[in-house]
């Protein structure tokens, strides 16, 4: 998605579908109105709440104050009464029961002091006076009087008088209040302070009914003499007793608070400083509300005793409160705010919708424009008359027309199309659409002719544009360049054709099956190999056709396994298995099965080859190898084979018998195992060279027999190559030539002996020739001398033929002399005592030049000497003689009219020096060059004079100096004689 489109989408999401107006904008005013309304409501409700609270607090405080004051004030009045009572006792010597009643009657307790149980006097009676006191009381009319509880105590404070003498109070008469710790504590405090003191909470003696109340007592001390003494000690000493009142708390407080506005406040009175249940004296009858608005404690001080009072508002109080109003203010405020908000929202929505509609239209128009400009298809629209109204850039590009230029023109002018196959002009799609009123499908193989005349293959589509009422407003034409698609289609066709050609021409059977095992493809090679026609087998089960029955189950299982798991161990590998022909015969086949990549459901192609012939050849090869083995084992000779790399892999039985080694020892040891150590290095070198160059191997070497004896063998090995010339195997044989070798050695020895004998004979012969030649020379000189005399004296008298004969005699004698001289020279060379030493080649050369000076003059020969000329080990005179003979021949054997050109040069070859004497003469046929060095051998007898001894002398001389001689020559190309002599040490 392009960035632009992504942005458009995200803003759409914010607006919400179809609204086209930001949610924030719609909600802004409603939210402000509701918020303001709620704020105002909250403020009003708060004010109402605050007002009601102030009022309630006043009411509560009023009730608390009044109650506290009322209790304190009334109890103070009671205490005053008691004080008056005490004064009465102090004022008179003795107070009798009757007097006490008279006084109390006057007070009208029940009328003016509601809640008080009574008023009484308790008298101090020391232990010593107890019995007398009890007796006196009984005497006085209190017949059943006794002090309770019984027991001896230091002093007693029994209740003596109590008014009114009702059922409850009479029950208390005689009770020693000092015996109870709570009462005693209050009494002692009253005594010591000289003032009224209230007791802590007690259960009164008078509580004789089942319904009991907590109560308390107030004591006022009575001292002897009527006044309160100064000191505590005096107070204790002069104490007469106490005037006291018992109070039932509930009765008392109900009475005290009668007439107060009590239903609004609940009250709990605790004895002491804390509001704990164990100290509860009284609780008002009307309960506190479950969540009292006010809850306060205050303390009251009653006759030196502190009470804690807890005040709580009651339901009646809460009901009376105006606090509830605040709630109604809030509810009303919220409701009004909500209603206002709702109205605002409805207004904003309708406003937003109106605005969004406008924007949507603009946007959709823009989007359409952008879409049409950016899509890959070309778009042209026309009006109802077929005149162009719009073209997008792709259409401009393809047609070659600009939007401005095309507007208002008729479509066929802009959009010219041909049928690619027929070359005919195609129908005008817009006309068709206007006529038919429906969409027109693309014409086949349409080609667009652009304004410049270019041809572009296209696919096109045309459809009517209708108004909402269904009227045709125009036509829209969409088309695109399909060059690429056509090219791809052509490429596909071509690749199909290629595949088809491969299938048809393949030598291997190519068989394709689908996942169900049904044949899809069966190429001509398959038809030939299996004997089925393609049409007969396509669509049939492969299994039943070409797989032998016993393999079918395995094939099915393999297929199922592959389809289930995608694993096929038999796939993509070369397999060998039998296959079945149409005629029911089986043949060995080599095949590879390959799943077709990407085929879904899977398909497989099998490449299959009939390998009957190959199998037969393999069999033949195996048999041939066996035959070779058999032959190798059966012949008496030793045979071995080695691989291409020269490693031994086979030795025949004869080998093992001869060497006494096992096959493995022979294979692994290499040559060293059995070849004599003196021959080993050369053996290995030659073998390696032969293996590398694949040249025949041959060597004579000694091989150790099992008894340790070495015997000479001739070993040969040849590389056996296959049809391509590649080495397959080395086959070697070892022939025992030990006997033959010994025979050869014996023969050589014989030859050497004979040669020695022969050369002795030769030497004798040479000596003999020399003697003869020497002796022959005498008579020859005579013949020459006399024939010279004859010529001098009688030449003039002799006729022509006589002169001719004489000349021939002289010539023969001369030749004879030459011959003899040469023989003598040869003999000297062969026999002379020569001593070898360093010789300057230049010196010997100049000797030779001097010897042949005449001949040179005659032949006008040219001599060239090329420096440097080294010193050699030789004999100077002999070397001179050798050079002289070579020079003489070189000047002699030239073609008629050719001026001899002779060159001497040297060539260093390591230890030796080759001295070349080269000429431009008639040359020597190479095949005859051996002969010319023999005595009397001549190649050019008729035309050139000579004795045939010169080169014999050369050879003899060179041999005697320890050197060698030879010639390189071709007929007509001059001759290059060389002699090779040892180089002399420098200096
Ligand atoms: P000759 O007395 O014939 O020279 P040599 O023994 O010197 O006898 O030579 C033997 C033969 O070798 C010659 O007759 C000639 O045929 C051939 N021969 C020797 N030297 C040369 C040469 N430089 N060029 C051609 N042929 C030669």
Structure overview:
With 987 residues, the protein is an alpha+beta fold. A 6-stranded antiparallel sheet has the order 13-12-17-16-15-14. Strands 4-1-7-6-5 form a 5-stranded antiparallel sheet, with helices on both faces. Strands 19-18-22-21-20 form a 5-stranded antiparallel sheet. Helix 26 packs parallel to helix 30 and helix 27 (841-851) crosses helix 29 (876-892). The longest helix has 69 residues, at 23-91. Adenosine-5'-diphosphate (ADP) is lined by residues 889-890, 893, 919, 921-922, 924, 932, 937-940, 946-952, 975.
Number of DSSP strand runs: 34
Low-confidence stretches: 1-20
Principal-axes geometry comes out as elongated
Instruction: Give the distinct bound molecules.
Output: adenosine-5'-diphosphate
Give the biggest sheet. 6 strands, antiparallel
Our estimate of the beta-strand percent is: 15-25%
Helix content: 40-55%
Coarse structural class: alpha+beta
